[in-house]
């Protein structure tokens, strides 16, 4: 995780499983599949390799509200979440709660199997994050590769109080259903 973030001047998924079709050059290596295969090719025992999955999102402030996809210009971090209080970062609970309160546009990118969302009316906030579907796909990937399992960072950013209506710890439970 943390493969992309507001330290870059464009949007991208922070923990993409595979390369995005528009990735070129060094960005072709910034994905989970490349990292896992690299470690395995270098001799890491797969039964000792644990794949990290973030339970938070990375945020950007879009430079142009008409450009909302991957590689959209974004020279500033997104606003801080109300609980994590860090610019460029929001916990899953903050993201899903804000999505219940405001009219976000949620995109499930078919090439990436990863969600991202943007909120334009009052801000130009763009966030890459995980949802139950994307963490399920990642956990299944780890299991299919024969890895030791998955770890999360970090549990307090999952929806631990059901404020979003999908039950408590929906992301952690989605991973646990696979392992």
From TrEMBL:
It is an enzyme of class 3 (hydrolase). InterPro entries: Chitinase_II/V-like_cat (IPR011583), Chitinase_insertion_sf (IPR029070), GH (IPR017853), Glyco_hydro18_cat (IPR001223), Glycosyl_Hydrlase_18 (IPR050314). It comes from the Eukaryota. GO terms for cellular component: extracellular region. Signal peptide: none annotated. Residues 1-179 form the GH18 domain. Pfam families: Glyco_hydro_18. It catalyses: Random endo-hydrolysis of N-acetyl-beta-D-glucosaminide (1->4)-beta-linkages in chitin and chitodextrins. One of its GO terms (biological process) is polysaccharide catabolic process. GO terms for molecular function: chitin binding; endochitinase activity. This is chitinase. It comes from Hirondellea gigas.
């Amino acid at each position: 995780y943390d493969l992309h973030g507001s330290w870059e001047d464009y949007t991208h998924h922070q923990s993409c499983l595979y390369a995005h079709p528009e990735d070129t050059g060094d960005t072709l290596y910034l994905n989970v599949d490349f990292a896992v295969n690299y470690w395995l090719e270098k001799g890491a025992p797969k039964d000792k390799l644990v794949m990290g999955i973030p339970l938070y999102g990375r945020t950007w402030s879009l430079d142009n509200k008409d450009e909302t996809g991957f590689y959209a210009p974004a020279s500033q971090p997104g606003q801080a979440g109300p609980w994590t209080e860090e610019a460029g970062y929001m916990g899953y609970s903050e993201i899903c709660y804000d999505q219940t309160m405001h009219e976000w546009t949620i995109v499930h990118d078919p090439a990436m199997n990863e969600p991202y969302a943007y909120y334009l009316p009052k801000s130009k906030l763009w966030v890459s994050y995980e949802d139950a579907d994307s963490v399920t796909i990642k956990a299944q990937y780890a299991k299919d590769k024969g890895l030791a399992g998955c770890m999360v960072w970090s549990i307090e950013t999952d929806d631990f109080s059901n404020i979003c209506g999908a039950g408590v710890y929906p992301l952690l439970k989605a991973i646990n259903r696979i392992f």
